[in-house]
Amino acid sequence: MTAYIFRRLLATIPVMAVVAVFVFFLLRLAPGDPAAIIAGEDATAEAIAAVRAKLGLDRPVLEQFALWLYGLAQGDFGVSIFSNLPVTRLIAQRVEPTLALTVSTLLVTVCLAIPMGVLAAWKAHKLVDRVVMVFAVMGFALPVFLIGYVLIFIFAVKLGWLPVQGYRPIRDGFFPFVETLILPSLALGVAYMALIARITRASMLEVLSQDYIRTANSKGLTTRRVLMLHALKNASVPIVTVIGIGIALLISGVVITETVFNIPGLGRLTVDAVLKRDYPIVQGLIIVFAGAKVLVNLVIDISYAFLDPRIRY
Prior knowledge:
The structure is a single chain. This protein has one domain: MetI-like (MetI-like fold, Orthogonal Bundle), CATH 1.10.3720. The model has no long low-confidence stretch (mean pLDDT 80). Helix content is 78%, strand content 0%. By secondary structure, the protein is mostly helical. The protein has 14 helices and no strands.
């Protein structure tokens, strides 16, 4: 078990190294000059060159990369080009809303999608199954921003039940905190919920056709016990896998969702940094998002050993 976890930990190192290389060089190859943007439209060539020298952009690319890696190893993501503040401070200021939105979306999605998939598999080819599959198809077809605006129009504008936009930290009160997360969590979680529900249904259908399920039914066990204890447990590996894969949906959807609902999180910071071509912020955010994705997949890989002991061998 320890060797299995150690191997998975070692596997994350080359992944993050490749991410760092791609992040740095792809941004440098992108069109546009941040020094010219900072200097302004009417700036002279001398003024632009001075800005480039101040930012260190006149140095060789490999030297810039080595300095960036050295700072990264010390937990220093650099300094923002426009605000002149450390990137770590800017990320720390925005991480709470994004973390709250991601965790709430994950909880809502998993708690709703898995029962939907189990119910669809149990009632396969019946009305409930068709309803769940229609929802799954629509969840993938509709974009996040459209779902967000529809939810705002219905529950905030027409009914007035929830706030239209904004974010309230938990220190301002638990209920205001939850109210600001309900609509964005639902908007962000629809596609994720559809994915988990479909995989749960497919995995459960395969397990329910096995001989040991028929044996459990013939022994007179209740339907709930058969579904939850025997079937769902043995179908959990593909479900857990897709939960980890779906974290990428949450990370990409956070950018759009925070813009629609005016949430001051990492998604809004990403949009602002990309529009301004603020290299240090963009690099730091991509590293943070990639690290979160790798960490989640690491936890998923380790959980396999507990769900199915054969995997650890």
